[in-house]
Write a structure and sequence with these properties.
By secondary structure, the chain is an alpha/beta fold. It is built from 32 helices and 19 strands.
């Protein structure tokens, strides 16, 4: 089945000029053009005496003349060159300094980062204008000196904002993927971090230019500029010194440079206004409904009736009608790009700006949600319909405690005693009381998801919409989350719409299932009925793709290879041992404890364990991305980025930069290695993973692809290097059943053709049993059980392995 992407091309930070920014750009451009070209068009220079002193404006001298007979228009145009040059050169240099320091500080971290930030704090603590005045008076009246002084002071504020974003990018999976290829720091920073920072750098440049122009004008007006050079500030200085303010000459002597200073600053402010993310309120979709509202067909508490949603003219949801019965759990099942999240978000009118409701309606009891105003709809969200977002870590504010965030949801709806309500809810979702003041990063993935559920339940809604609430969680945490939702549903009488791609996960819990394919609701019914007698071929294929753990093993291999491609002996990894951590007295975390493991050529070894067990840490150590104790050999050599091992990261939405073209992503490994003509290998790799390799597809941005296509691109990027060892970190966790099977079949074919070893990291013991030759189970950073796949799953010896089997 074709993996279709119906969503619009997302990008985390898009640079777009709005009308107000266009107006600012045009205004500033006209001013620069005037001061650059204007003096050459006048018949006299700014320093010539061409008329009587204090001459009034005339056709020959549109702004009149100053007290010594110099044409004021020529002076204003020439003076603009210095004022704008000081502003723009200062902005360019200071922004470049701030960007370099921010990236270097975020990249290096530790003690150097701490020292850099303390220097920034010290400079920012000094009063700005008095400091500049003192330095200007000390170093002398020179515009070169002014630029130097302004750069010394104005670089600090941008560093903080750029550094915080650079720190987030430093830990991004696509940065680690580039490092794993052996890319240099320069390559990673210029190819990945700097382009993502660009929409933040532009506003910083604008702000510095604005401040520099105003400061230069102020200093020159105070007599701290070069009195022999013309700038807008010195024009004002001479006008004040020569009593222009006491005569009507100020109208043509003072007003023009003053207005140009103000106009330049306004233009720069307009340019910097809102550059970066462009987000609009999805509630505007209510106004954009093209068709008429559809009458409801049932009395269900939540119902979508003939809903049709399109992106740029392409339907993502096609005339879908779905009713969620009261007090039940309905599972909305669909593969990547099927439109399930679009349908769910359309029910809450939380759509991106590119979305357009063509027709249909959504009913909550007797209320047509698309007939409500934006204010009325805000009262519905949270109060009557709660949302559990997909990625709890990104949905929670990283700088606010979880208690504060749950209480905030209560405050938004004007509920009594928000703090007490938050504590009660956190207790109800099994978060210990002593974690009330914890930050999201201090919680496990399962705990963060519980907090997201608590926030959704603050106002005691009638309906709960859970969008992929278990994606990326291990089977034990998935079970705990589902048990929690089931318990809350019974206790509160909740109606639940559970959106997921994981059919076996929800089929055991849901009252009904609704199957979505390419935006069309192809079938719905009871799970037991659909599993035995599904009518639609897509539904049949989904159930056939489910791999019960006790079914006959799908992939049987009889390898005779003895060449070891990965050998780990007594490997330990401890985080938090740096100087900055010791100064903060932070307790080190031991991620791996004396782990030993081998993988031979042509073999698949599954590394199974829960979240935080150390699986990914071991893979990163084998790639040379983290420091470790013990011994690791990859192909007989110590691990190093760009070596014989490659890694497919867990989340293709994080490990591939959305703004990059498909061809550039796959070619990066070869570019880093200095390959002269990488596109031949790129096309071959894309063909190997069953993706198009024409110029159109190569030019497509990764952000326009579906999840399944992205994961195939990630595999192609890994395989283009012709590795001996493939480290596949949860490569199927983001995929639905059918795509999961296709990806495993692809990896098996490539393993057989290339003879490479595969370390298959997963939390799914059933999947590991079918795909792997051997299984190693990890728990709390140690391997607690290892053996042939059938032996481990049939006769587990460790209690934790038995827990995983029970949850599978």
């Amino acid at each position: 089945m074709t993996d279709v992407a119906l969503a619009p091309p997302p990008h985390p930070r898009t640079f777009q000029l709005r009308p107000v920014q266009t107006a600012g750009t045009v205004t500033l451009g006209l001013i620069i053009l005037a001061v650059a070209v204007g003096p050459f068009l006048l018949p006299f220079s700014a320093t010539e005496t061409v008329c009587d002193g204090f001459a009034r404006p005339s056709t020959t001298h549109p702004l009149g003349c100053n007290d010594v007979g110099q044409d004021l228009l020529a002076g204003v145009l020439v003076g603009g060159r210095i004022s704008l040059a000081v502003g723009l050169v200062t902005a360019l240099v200071a922004t470049a300094i701030a960007t370099v320091i921010a990236i270097a500080s975020a990249w290096r971290g530790g003690f150097g980062d701490m020292v850099a930030m303390r220097i920034v704090d010290a400079v920012m603590a000094l009063p700005f204008l008095p400091l500049v005045i003192v330095l200007s008076a000390f170093f002398g009246a020179s515009y070169g000196v002014q630029i130097l002084i302004l750069c010394m002071v104005l670089w600090t504020q941008p560093v903080r904002e750029l550094r915080s974003q650079a720190q987030a990018l430093r830990s991004a999976d696509y940065v680690d993927a580039s490092r794993a290829m052996g890319a240099s720091t320069w390559h990673v920073c210029t190819r990945h971090i700097l382009p993502e920072l660009a929409p933040l750098i532009v506003p910083q440049f604008v702000r510095i230019a604005n401040a520099a122009i105003l400061t230069e004008s102020s200093l020159s007006f105070l007599g701290l500029g070069d009195p022999l050079a013309k700038s807008w500030g010195t024009i004002l200085f001479h006008a004040n010194a020569r009593t222009a303010f006491l005569t009507d000459a100020w109208l043509w002597w003072v007003m023009p440079p003053g207005l140009l200073i103000a106009l330049s600053m306004v233009a720069l402010a307009l340019i910097g206004h809102g550059i970066g993310d462009r987000r609009e309120d999805g509630t505007t979709m209510a106004i954009g409904r093209e068709g008429s509202a559809s009458a409801r067909t049932t009395q269900a508490p939540l119902e979508a009736s003939h809903l049709d949603v399109a992106y740029s003219g392409t339907s993502a949801v096609r005339s879908v009608s779905l009713a969620v019965a009261r007090g039940t759990t309905t599972g909305l099942i669909g593969e990547s790009g099927s439109g399930k999240s679009t349908l769910a978000m359309a029910m809450l009118r939380l759509m991106p700006p590119a979305a357009r409701l063509r027709s249909g309606s959504v009913w909550l009891e007797d209320t047509d949600l698309y007939g409500l105003s934006a204010e009325e709809m805000r009262a519905v969200r949270g109060r009557r319909v709660g949302l559990v977002p997909q990625a709890a870590m990104t949905a929670l504010n990283p700088v606010k405690t979880i208690g504060w965030q749950v209480a905030e949801a209560a405050r938004v709806h004007g509920l009594d005693d928000p703090r007490a309500r938050a504590k009660a809810l956190l207790k109800e979702v099994s978060i210990p009381a002593d974690r009330f003041g914890a930050f999201p990063h201090e919680l496990s993935g399962g705990q963060r998801q519980r907090v997201a559920i608590a926030i959704a339940l603050v106002a005691e809604p009638e309906v709960l919409l859970a969008d992929e609430p278990t994606t990326g969680l291990d089977v034990l945490v998935q079970k705990a989350i589902l048990d929690l939702l089931e318990r809350l549903s019974r206790a509160r009488g909740l109606t639940v719409l559970f959106v997921t791609h994981d059919l076996p996960l929800i089929a055991r819990r849901a009252t009904r299932l609704a199957i979505l394919q390419n935006g069309v609701l192809v079938e719905s019914g009871y799970p037991g009925t659909l599993s035995l007698a599904a009518k639609h071929p897509h539904t049949q294929a989904l159930f056939q793709a489910v791999l019960p753990i006790d079914a006959p093993k799908v992939w049987q291999r009889a390898s005779t290879e003895t060449d070891t491609v990965l050998s780990a002996k007594e490997v330990s990894v401890t985080y938090g041992t740096g100087l900055s951590n010791r100064l903060r007295r932070a307790k080190p975390v031991q991620a791996l404890q004396a782990v030993s493991l081998t993988v031979v050529a042509g073999e698949v070894v599954a590394l199974v364990g829960g979240s935080g067990s150390g699986k990914t840490t071991l893979a990163r150590a084998a790639m040379g991305l983290v420091a470790y104790e013990g011994e690791i050999r990859v192909g007989g050599q110590p691990p190093r980025p760009g070596g014989p091992a490659v890694m497919v990261f867990q989340d293709p939405y994080q490990s591939l930069r959305p703004a990059m073209g498909v061809g550039d992503v796959v070619a990066e490994t070869l570019v880093v290695a200095g390959h002269a003509d990488p596109m031949i290998e790129v096309r071959r790799a894309l063909s190997d993973v069953r993706l198009p390799n024409d110029d159109v597809f190569l030019a497509r941005r990764v952000g326009s692809l579906s999840g399944g296509q992205r994961q195939r691109v990630a595999v192609a990027r890994a395989l283009v290097a012709n590795p001996r060892l493939l480290l596949a970190d949860e490569p199927t966790s983001m995929l639905d059943q059918s795509l999961r099977g296709e990806l495993l079949a692809l990896l098996e074919r490539l393993r057989a053709e290339r003879g490479m070893g595969i370390l298959f990291i997963t939390h799914d013991l059933a999947l590991a049993r079918h795909f792997a030759d051997r299984i190693a189970v990890m728990h709390h950073g140690a391997i607690i059980e290892t053996g042939f796949a059938d032996a481990v799953t049939a006769n587990p010896t460790h209690p934790y392995t038995r827990q995983l089997l029970e949850a599978a």
